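Input chain follows. Return structure tokens only.
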Amino acid sequence: MALKNYQTALLNLLIELDRVCSEVGVQYCIVDRLAWREKKGFKGFKGAEGEATVAMLRADYERAKPALEALENREIEETEIDGFPIARFVNSHSTYINMLSPFRFEKPGIAVTIKILEPAGRKVVYAYGKTSRSLSKSLFFPARRASFNDAKLCFPPDMLKLFGKLFKQPSILFRRYPGTFETERFEVICDLEVPYANYMALKGAHELASEMKFVGRKEYYRIVDENKKLEVEKNRAFEARTLTARRVQIWQQLYPIEDELVAASERGDEEFLREKLSDYVELVKRFRKFDYGFYVDPVLERVAKPLVVEALGQKGYAEYEASICPEYRVGMAQILREAGVEHPLL
């Protein structure tokens, strides 16, 4: 996957941080989302990430900080997130504001977040969101080098073990770890040619980047959730419109071979029935999702019943039967005749 321009800038910051750490003899490791994906076998950015996070012991951070700040167009911003200390290694010649993030920074440029691991006896404090644990240093260091895009960078010895210790639910992390896949819309103000100081000097820039611009975000998500519920009902209405068309389609497909289907049912030719009735069974399953009973013909219903029971289960089949409109049970051929339709199969 080709990197987006801000991802290239972010990768360059990671490479710079790695070089400085090697030169001054300090340890770091990439953590959180990017490390989790590396553990899963994805060697780089995936989706729209505009952030990268590393962990560093407090003593190592204090040694690396002067060397990082000495680089051209690079600054350090120290702050807290959820009460835990972090530093940001910022490209001051860039502007980067994530419009969906609740965090607002004094130096809103492309940056690598540094989680500062505070000592807790022989352990260190590590936090993800509002969850924190005192963990062994061995979960972070010595780090291992692994490929990340075109670079070799440092990662924890075992990311699964690290997050298992943090969340105490390692068996479900692949399914539930926040941020494993980028699912949210990604809205940013990004310019790699305009220093953030210049951008923030523009009229209205501080207001745009302030928390007050995002007080309606909760309401926005509430509306999104309501729209998702309406989407389900919209799909249900759409399926209702296609129900009759699908009934006629399957009837035209199977009515000419009804005698063959009955004979196959009587002699127990399951292979023939599975082949010929596969579309019928799939449509029964499809319309059950919307509480519609897909019914075509009494003969077809009888010969297909074992396959439908297999697909839906006994309880599901009972619900399916209860959902069939009584007027449909006479069969499509009779419905067409009574409607005066001159169909070539009749």
